[in-house]
């Protein structure tokens, strides 16, 4: 298991490092990266999820158990983080960044790893993970921002954030196509497949370009808290939820991969837009991205020694 994970991580590491080098070396203009991230998030990754689910063979995939495992684990950990808020001794905006670091995940890394481990089946499992976790995490994060961020959101604003999320919409649309047995038109199927294939390398390059380490020293405590929750509490909660629901095999492995991923680079944008602590969020993204390269194989290997994956 650890050898397969390391091999699947290798292209992730190389592409993230390349993105960091391209940005710092000035090979591409700084204005390129925000547009590239927007393209990947709103067009390419939704195409991957839609195509992956619309064409997936879901007969042998425990869709309900996988989704319930992820939702149960995520909401449990989120509740514990909120309950521990008084112990953190940080202001509201900083707490929103810690919360995002604890529960959000990087889609690009997760899909790349799932595809590297299980091929087309891995992409389908990853799409199901996204269909379950993305709306859950977005609801939780937006509610936390509404309570603790400096910008207040109304109920309508919260609903709009969730209903217009491109990853939620594309995953649910792909799942609906598959469950209804609707075929993709011959001309559109290869277009969605090609757009989806482009999402992973571009997304990983954008992750590398977005890494910022300047805020790390000033926020050691909150960053350590978010990392402990992400790399220890979240996978543990996922295993316990999976055991309770009987989830095992590749579905459990992919679920664990997604629950131990570093937080998404889009968390920084959300922190800026909704009144969070953007500098702390930038430091969290950088630290978790580096730690995940070690944490993912270690966590999966440790769990595999106890629970068959």
TrEMBL record:
Q: For this UniProt record, give its keywords in alphabetical order, as a comma-separated list.
A: Cell membrane, Membrane, Transmembrane, Transmembrane helix, Transport
Tell me which Gene Ontology terms the entry assigns under biological process.
Answer: transmembrane transport
Q: How does it sit in the membrane?
A: Multi-pass membrane protein
Matching entries from Gene3D superfamilies are given as:
1.20.1530.20
Q: Could you list the residue ranges that cross the membrane?
A: 39-56, 63-84, 123-146, 167-185, 191-211, 283-307
User: Is the Ribonucleoprotein keyword given for this protein?
Assistant: no
Tell me the InterPro entries matching this sequence.
Answer: Mem_transp_PIN-like (IPR004776), Na+/solute_symporter_sf (IPR038770)
Q: Provide GO CC annotations from the record.
A: plasma membrane
The subcellular localization recorded is:
Cell membrane
* Matches recorded under PANTHER family: AUXIN EFFLUX CARRIER FAMILY PROTEIN
What family does the Swiss-Prot or TrEMBL record give for this protein?
Belongs to the auxin efflux carrier (TC 2.A.69) family.
- Its protein name is Transporter
Look up and give the organism this protein is from.
Answer: Methylorubrum salsuginis
